């Protein structure tokens, strides 16, 4: 009796007659590329993705010239905003910035890890003790914007809210 067998791993089909293998061939319509072709294709895809990703990340991390610089310091469980250009600081109050103004924020922490997150701005930056991270934003529309600490920073983490008041440049 003849038995036809297909190997799922290699796509090979062989016919066996009375325990003796008669022929082994590739399954019809299925051809495996060589290992070199698989790796070359994978490497080419990675290169095609890596080149534009490099330029995009580089552009995102480049800080524009700031109209206003703000130091944001996270503390359990409030934020301190220091306007560097005006040598003025407030704590546990909203950050007030003018519309259509480039704001560069230097973010740090005085105690534990925090994350300053305002979803409407597309901004989320970690505040790490002893380290200053930078982020920038430019808001076009006036209004109140809400955010929250996005790092589990302690028992009252849920109460560590962020309020940003964007006003007209005249105000």
Written description of the protein model:
Helix content is 16%, strand content 46%. It has 171 residues and is an alpha+beta fold. The strands form three sheets. Strands 6-5-4-8-11 form a five-stranded mixed β-sheet, with no helix packed on it.
SSE order and pairing:
Blueprint: E1 2-6, E2 12-17, E3 20-26, H1 35-61, E4 68-75, E5 78-83, E6 88-91, E7 95-98, E8 102-109, E9 114-118, E10 123-127, E11 133-138, E12 143-149, E13 161-167
Parallel strand pairs: 4-8, 7-13
Antiparallel strand pairs: 1-2, 2-3, 4-5, 5-6, 8-11, 9-10, 9-12, 12-13
Task: Provide key terms for this protein.
171 residues; alpha+beta; five-stranded mixed beta sheet; elongated; 1 helix
In short:
The chain is an alpha+beta fold. It is built from 1 helix and 13 strands.
For the secondary structure, the number of strands is: 13
How many helices? The count is: 1
Strand order of the largest sheet: 6-5-4-8-11
Order of H and E elements:
EEEHEEEEEEEEEE
Q: Largest sheet, if any? A: 5 strands, mixed
Q: Which stretches are poorly predicted, pLDDT < 50 over at least 5 residues? A: 20-24
Mean of the pLDDT scores?
Answer: 85
> Cα-atom Rg, whole angstroms?
30 Å
What is the overall silhouette?
A: elongated
The termini sit apart by 94 Å
Helical amount among residues, as a percent range? 10-25%
The assigned structural class equals: alpha+beta
Strand content: over 45%
Tell me which oligomeric state these chains represent.
single chain
């Amino acid at each position: 009796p003849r038995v036809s067998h297909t190997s799922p791993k290699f796509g090979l089909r062989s016919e066996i007659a009375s325990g003796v293998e008669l022929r082994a061939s590739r399954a019809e319509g299925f051809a495996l590329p060589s290992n070199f072709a698989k790796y070359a294709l994978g490497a080419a895809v990675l290169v095609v993705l890596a080149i534009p990703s490099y330029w995009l990340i580089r552009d995102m991390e480049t800080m524009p010239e700031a109209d206003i610089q703000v130091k944001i310091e996270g503390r359990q469980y409030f934020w301190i905003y220091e306007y560097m250009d005006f040598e003025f600081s407030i704590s546990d109050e909203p950050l007030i910035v003018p519309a259509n103004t480039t704001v560069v924020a230097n973010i740090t922490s005085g105690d534990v890890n925090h994350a300053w997150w305002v979803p409407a701005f597309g901004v989320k930056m970690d505040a790490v003790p002893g380290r200053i991270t930078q982020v920038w934003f430019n808001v076009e529309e006036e209004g109140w914007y809400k955010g929250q600490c996005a790092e589990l920073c302690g028992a009252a983490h849920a109460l560590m809210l962020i309020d940003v008041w964007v006003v007209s440049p005249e105000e």
